[in-house]
Amino acid sequence: MNENAEAKQPPLLEVRDLKAGFEIGGRLRLAVDGVSFKAGRGKIVCVVGESGCGKSVMSLSIMKLLPKGIGRIAGGEIILEGRNIASFSEEEMNKIRGKDAAMIFQEPMTALNPVFSVGFQVEEVLFNHTKISRKHAREKSAELLMQVGISAPEKVLDQYPHQLSGGMRQRVMIAMAIACYPKLLIADEPTTALDVTIQAQILELIKDIQYKRDMSVLLITHDLGVVAEMADDVIVMYAGQIVEQGGAEELFYNPKHPYLKALLKSIPRLGEKKKRLDSIKGIVPSLANMPREGCRFADRCPEATGDCRKIAPQLANIADGHTVRCLLYKESIPAVSEGVK
Question: For residue 118, is it left (φ>0), alpha (ψ between -120 and 50) or beta?
Fold first, then answer.
């Protein structure tokens, strides 16, 4: 497909002004506050930020898997192939999950059911979304395990999650996620519990499957090394908001927001001799202590001015496809505050 034809295609996923959070002390605290982005077809979009920035809550909101009773979507739209799934019922979402959109979770030991065999759990995905015989489901499950690099799949199908290594369990999770050829794959920190060599294998596997099946991937991570290796586009989140987004190459070579600059500066580099690694002072504000006005990064920002604690910047386009939320750029200053700066 040429670039012009691709540009005319609507994005596979479009999130518009998403607000989601948790009921705490009788009040809804937003962990995701007004997030908007697009994921193009066949693209890998990486969402990056420290723990507590709202990345996982955003991904769970897209799949409508927030914990019942305390978590809920408070506003916005989630457009998947032209359908606003934010308004879908649980029954309607069950038809979407696994078929049109699938998710790989952080910890496969808790995501897989310990009392059922691997084969039962992979086959269940197939039974939920396709009309398939038990024999064919078994054959298809073995084929899926082969595709994700598991040797002796017939043996593994009869095993239970506790009998597998962390890397094997994560491969099983990927096999389940791709079983019904979803168009969107959400991977939430898929290598967190794995050692470095296995991490590289899992990421390479996801990238290979994405390329072969032309899937869109939303990859949640805090590792900028992973972002550099995997991403077409990057979303940087802080305290529930997007603070910068754009193409991966643009953001790595031309970062604008002080938060992204600090994240990039904190990466250790070969050949550099330092007594101490660079770090960002302070911590991400909790849901109960979210700043009520101004920029949410102001207390940790080395470039903050007095206005940064009073005026909330807006996410604005500063170059083609490159947006930033920071008062250092005139485009981000709200119109009502232009006379203040």
Answer: alpha
